[in-house]
Each structure stands twice: as C-alpha cells, then as structure tokens.
C-alpha cells in the first residue's frame, strides 16, 4: 500500500510538506482545536489552561540561518522557582502539556533534571520540547521522561552544518540524535524538522537521505518566512522540483501520509473576529524574562502580557477572557504570524455552524496548540 497524499488540506504548519505515520497524523489537523475549545469554553471548564509553552533560556551556541531569534538573544535563563510556582498553579487544572521551546535552544537549559524531579510525581500532563539537541548532556538522564521531541535538523554532514549554523558541530549533534533514538521508549514521539530556504532547497535530497536512517514519527519540511513582517522569503524555491525530489525518494515507503501545504500562504487568509485562543485561555507562553502571554504571537508587543511571574504570583487575570480579548485587539499583534490564527478561523467556522459535523473531532484531543 502506497503513501496517501493530501494537497492543500487544513493542516499545520502552513507552507510545508509533512511526512507522517498514521498514529501521528491527527497532530497536524487544524480540527483538533475544536475538541479543546469544546471542553474548555462550551463545557464551562474554568481555571483551566490546555498548554503552557516555556522559553527556558534565551541563548543558543548555534547561529542558524533563518532563525528569527538569533539577533535577539540576551543570555537570560528563566527563574526556576517562579516557573515551578506557575506549573503548580496550572497543575490544579486539567493541564495537558508543557512545551519547552525558544527563545534560545532548550537543550542548553541546565535545570532539566531538576524540573523533571520536581514535577514527575504529580503530573498527568505531557512534556515536550523543540530543540537542535546540541546540549544533550543537560538532558541525558531524563531523555525518556520527555513525551515528544521536535528536532531541528541543521545539516546532513560537516559542510552543510557549517554552512547552516556557522560551526562544525555535525558529528556532535548527529551522535546526540542517534542517542535519542537508541534510548527512546515506545510511547515517545519524535518529529524531525528542516527549514527549507532559497539557499538550501536544492540540497533537499541530501537531507532526505540523512533523515531516512531514523525511525521518525513525522518529518516536517518547512518553507522559510518572515512572520514579523508577514511576508514570504522563499520566492526562489521551485516547489515542483521539491515535490519531484520527494516523489523519487525511498523515504516515502516509511510513512502513511504526505501532507502538501506548500501552496498555502497563510498571509492571505481573512482575519477572524476574535483571538479565540487568548479569549478562551487555552494557552499561555512564558518567556525567559518572566512575561506571561496569551498567545504565541502576542509577545510582538510586550503590553500584551498578562503579568510577569517574577513580580507577581497572582495569575488570575488569565481567566478574564473578555478583558484580554479586547486587550489583544487594541495592541499590535502580527496575527498572520501565529499558528493560533489558523485555529481561530476553524473556531469561527465552528461557531457559525459550518463545522458542526466534523468526523472524529472527539478523537483529536491535541497535546500541542
């Protein structure tokens, strides 16, 4: 049985090609947000966040091409005790996931083992991270405690890695990735991600050959974009050549689905009436400096923060949905830079009775928003 190809479907991320196995397929469906929205908003579940995203550090040893954070690194590390206090606060509700991302590279955080030790006995939620895995030493003793990984692939050999991130670190990162796969447990999910740019897309076949050796649950090949200015940066990429490269690769035999959203420019989508993610309180983003935000793109304006956890332990404003929905509308926010922007469109259609008969919605309980 061959791979099932879906083009221009409603999937995350936009302007990407995704290879995924059947069990991981629901993670990419936009409709998964309706499940979370129903349970939180329509079932009157209060004081309840679905996902907390955390930037534990604001530094990274690599200087990767296309990294939107590279010019904004401050060297800051999150206040560990205040993070634990916030986690304990959300742990009283039906928290689903804490996801460590950047900012900087989360594998550079030297409190991984301390964090897992503090929360492991009292958690029913998932732990995930997005990382280049350069600093495996900080995580080596708790690798199998993390439920899902998103690994950023910065090269397929020594030369390509130097070209992409400026350092000769291929051997180190390659060994770290292999260690992760060797130690993985059956219930752990690993996604490999590759940022495809004008300068490297002709090397896609080499990246695919490199990734083929790993038993990934999914592979995401994402086009480079400038989210803050709402514009694409990949005009020189021949999308048909990308498709032909994948079509001729043996890697397709390892996956059940190929999701082709290369022609999906999110910047052309209409703006929803509301930032439903912020209004419902489904999600919060904690930046390294302690600022707590209601959606993934809201840090574009620091005034969108709920509070700073280094200053206050009163997080109750998070629950004032009407206030923050209005506040988000009155502050500068690059909505089209936001993956939640696409969720908002799905929720809006749902509220307009256009999505009431979605199949298998109840089975699409997401870990990540």
UniProtKB/TrEMBL annotation:
Q: Which domain of life is it from?
A: Bacteria
Q: Where is the Radical SAM core domain?
A: 56-205
Under Pfam families, the record lists: Radical_SAM
Q: Does the keyword Metal-binding apply?
A: yes
Give the GO molecular function terms.
Answer: catalytic activity; iron-sulfur cluster binding; metal ion binding
Species of provenance: Propionispora vibrioides
Q: Which UniProt keywords apply?
A: Iron, Iron-sulfur, Metal-binding, S-adenosyl-L-methionine
Protein name, as recorded = Radical SAM superfamily protein
């Amino acid at each position: 049985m061959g791979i099932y190809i879906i083009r221009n479907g409603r999937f995350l991320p936009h302007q990407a090609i995704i290879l995924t196995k059947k069990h991981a397929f629901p993670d990419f469906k936009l409709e998964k947000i309706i499940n979370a929205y129903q349970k939180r908003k329509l079932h009157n579940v209060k004081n309840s966040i679905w996902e907390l995203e955390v930037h534990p550090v604001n530094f990274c040893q690599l200087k990767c091409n296309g990294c939107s954070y590279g010019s904004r690194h401050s060297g800051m590390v999150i206040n560990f005790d205040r993070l634990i206090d916030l986690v304990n606060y959300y742990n009283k509700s039906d928290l689903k996931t804490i996801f460590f991302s950047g900012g900087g590279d989360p594998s550079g955080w030297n409190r991984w083992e301390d964090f897992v030790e503090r929360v492991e006995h009292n958690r029913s939620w998932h732990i995930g991270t997005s990382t280049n895995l350069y600093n495996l030493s900080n995580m080596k003793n708790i690798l199998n405690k993390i439920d899902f990984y998103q690994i950023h692939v910065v090269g397929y050999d020594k030369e390509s890695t130097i070209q992409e991130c400026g350092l000769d670190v291929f051997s180190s990162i390659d060994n770290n990735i292999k260690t992760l796969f060797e130690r993985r447990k059956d219930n752990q999910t690993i996604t490999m991600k590759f940022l495809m740019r004008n300068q490297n897309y002709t090397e896609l076949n080499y990246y695919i050959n490199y990734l083929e050796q790993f038993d990934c649950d999914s592979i995401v090949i994402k086009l480079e974009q400038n989210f803050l200015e709402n514009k694409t940066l990949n005009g020189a990429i021949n999308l048909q050549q990308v498709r032909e490269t994948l079509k001729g690769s043996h890697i397709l035999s390892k996956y059940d689905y190929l999701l082709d959203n290369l022609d999906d420019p999110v910047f052309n989508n209409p703006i929803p009436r509301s930032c439903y993610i912020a209004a419902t309180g489904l999600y919060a983003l904690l930046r390294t400096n302690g600022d707590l935000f209601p959606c993934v793109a809201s840090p574009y304006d620091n005034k969108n923060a709920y509070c700073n956890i280094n200053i206050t332990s009163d997080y109750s404003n998070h629950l004032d949905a009407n206030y923050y929905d209005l506040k988000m509308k009155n502050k500068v926010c690059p909505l089209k830079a936001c993956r939640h922007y696409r969720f908002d469109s799905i929720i809006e259609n749902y509220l307009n009775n256009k999505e009431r008969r979605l199949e298998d919605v109840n089975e699409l309980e997401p870990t990540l928003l």
